[in-house]
Amino acid sequence: MRTTTVVIGAGHSGLAMSRCLSERSIDHVVLERHEVANSWRTERWDSLRLLTPNWQCRLPGYSYDGADPDGFMTMPEVVDFITDYATLIAAPVQSGTAVSSVRRTNGHYRVTTNQGEWRCETVVVATGAFNVPRVPRLSDAVPSSVTTLTPLEYRNPGQLGEGGVLVVGASATGVQIACEVQRSGRQVILAVGEHVRGPRVYRGRDIHWWMEAAGVLDERYDEVDDIVRARRVPSMQLAGSPERATFDLNALTSIGVKLVGRLAGIDGGRAQFSGSLRNKCELADLKLGRLLDTIDEWASANGLDDSVPPPHRFSPTVVDASPPLGLDLAGGAIETIIWATGFRPDYSWLDSMVLDAKGMIRHDGGVADSPGMFLVGSPFLRRRKSSFIDGARADAQELIVELAAYLDAGASLARR
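Now predict its structure.
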């Protein structure tokens, strides 16, 4: 089978690229191993909502137009939003088509699937960056009496035992799960490493409104000093609750969650925690202050000070004077460990020549280190908001320019 462009993945990023390709009349197909928006359907816990407001759900030629712009979509609503978009743009999706290999030969790509082989000039990788949970190697030392889960396996507290729960990781996923499990009546201990603190609402408006207005979310990958480091920054401690609640560590300790430092090891059935908890929290508090300074400066420069509440600062993160450095996992107090330690993409089907030593695609703002290959839907791909739905929109609209230029250059050479 032959086409100009193969898009791999029919989530919001792949569909955004499909719309941009159609607008330029570039022949293409979207290959999806399951069905449209599959990860939103099958790899999220029951109560999860988007952490971005509904008004920020924007794709090329499409945006949220419901009655609750300041609310946060549930996962079924996200699935409907994306599948409706696929229908609206008449995306050429081939569901149930799993890609097993992508290789470049003789100036073209050969995309091998369980439904046959495609030949194309360009490939867009839109499979997402959150395919495989990052579970630390020390997990091998967890006693057999303790059940372990990843966020892709966790659905609700009802699937857990009645005993204590250790949640490892305090970014957006970790704090949301910790809060839900603690409220279910189970004692939660949260192992905290590097994290990014953020309020849901500041000066009367959603923090994402401020970050968009002040240009924080649009900061570009070529404007930061260390893009590799920037792409590894944990997600902000936010959640999309109907109450627009803040999910920082103070909110969790107020309901009884206990904080410990980063999980550093497990030896003889005993967990060992870093003594850097206070330092990590102070650093997160400092970075939050810098973000709020940026917002306040923008508000003043743009004449908003008289129309919104005045600037304020949040209380420092409260940390016990001597948080425990160890925890007996074999004694029965901890029945479950949830590894909220991040995710990584799965590029096992890609030619290793385009991957770096850590299995990541080598690219410059989504233009892969392989002629005619492009990447979309990865954190801080072209701008800080790249991992959000709205970020995929903006990135796709820029990457289509790069892709079309590549095709035009090839056509020009062919005519000579």
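The first strand starts at residue 5 and ends at 8.
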